[in-house]
Amino acid sequence: MTLADSPSLTGPLASDISNAIVRLVREHWGKGPMQTKTLLHDDVVVTVLKGGFTHAEKTLYNAGKGDVVEEGRRAMQDVLEREMRAAVERLTGRRVSAFLSSNHHDPDVSVEVFMLESESNGNGNGAVAVDASEN
Description:
Blueprint: H1 12-29, E1 35-41, E2 44-50, H2 55-62, H3 66-92, E3 96-104, E4 109-116
């Protein structure tokens, strides 16, 4: 079994999260990714978006202005964070405690990572969370 086939990582919830993130990106950027995949495991949700750079961003990269594209992408991800968090919280029924976002130019890929608060009855897989500050 491959990582992509693992039932604990993909499924209807992952698909719903992918669709929600793509909808937000398309709504605010005017263009969405060509491929999206969301992986779920314990308290982590990772959404990978491939092929989402606009024509203007590609032109800037090709002209050596990648720093401008990165700055713009970071600013948009900051603006979209609230809506992305809300979508993941609504779909998972759990609070997002942390959000991380990053982009890569070649290949054209972005990643949105959501850390969820642990469920009240544990973290879902029987594992015990350890506070590293106590060691």
